[in-house]
Amino acid sequence: MKQSFSARLIIYLFSACLLGSVSGLTFADDEYNKKRMELIRVIEDDVRETSLYLDKEELDARVMKAMADVPRHEFVRKSLRSHAYENRPLPIGYGQTISQPYIVAIMTDLIKVKPGSRVLEIGTGSGYQAAILAELVDQVFTIEIIEPLSEQARALLKRLGYTNIQVKYGDGYYGWLEHAPYDAIVVTAAASHIPPPLLDQLKPGGKMIIPVGGRFMTQELLLIDKKPDGKHQTRQILPVSFVPFTREQE
Fold first, then answer.
1. How many separate helices (H) and strands (E) can be counted in the chain?
2. DSSP string of 65-99, one letter each residue
3. Is 242 left (phi over 0), alpha (psi -120 to 50) or beta?
């Protein structure tokens, strides 16, 4: 049956709109990819500039690949997506932030995880650090004390296909004993001291990275190495600025 001119016009316009929509999505994805590659170059420059603190001039290639692969724009508010690939923290609500990509990269690099590692993260936030870790290890266990953020992160990570991340709502000070011990622990909020339960749950030979200091004080990023005999060695990495570690009773 021959279509009328009106019917053909409607089909043409619908197809044009659909094609434009798909093209727009492709263009947006290409722009995000381009910005992500630009961010990688910025991180590489920052690593070289802080090499005296880090005792290295470049990060592990696996870490940089994870930084290049994970879509940071998915982990920020839609209103801030144009800033997603700037090398700075961004607000995610409830007084919390998504960390600066350079800081995420060096914290991930310093714990020296392997494909078979099990990692505990304290402070899920929007889920970005957990996603980076999940690109590198078998299992990530992450705890968030702000329930809405915990639920949002769980839903987002599921939507993005991360099946090796478990998200828990609770007080991260006590860790997650059920799945201990851990090869590495990452703390993404500034604590006044190193929580003893986290040290207990760190495997001998494991590493913990944690910012220590008060809100209005100098904070130091600390790397803790747990020795086979249970003792630990602490190394100061560099000054940082994180949101404070939140506890249930606060």
1. 7, 9
2. HHHHHS-GGGGS-GGGGGGTTSSS-EEEETTEEEP
3. beta
Across-strand partners of 114?
none
* β-strands 202-212, 139-144 pairing: unpaired
- Helix, strand, coil % in the chain, rounded to nearest 5: 45, 25, 30
Which residues participate in catalysis according to the annotation? 99
The predicted-structure confidence for 173-216, as pLDDT tens digits, reads as follows 999 999 999 999 999 999 999 999 999 999 999 999 999 997 76
d(CA 27, CA 32): 9
Task: Specify the pLDDT at position 42.
Answer: 98
Place of tokens 């001039």: 57
Whether 192 contacts 215, CB under 8 Å? no
Q: Is 203 helix (H, G, I), strand (E, B) or coil?
A: strand
Are 214 and 159 spatial neighbours (Cβ–Cβ below 8 Å)?
no
* pLDDT tens sequence across 72-112: 999 999 999 999 999 999 999 999 999 999 999 999 999 99
> Domains plus CATH for the chain?
89-240 (3.40.50.150)
Question: What pTM did the predictor assign?
Answer: 0.87
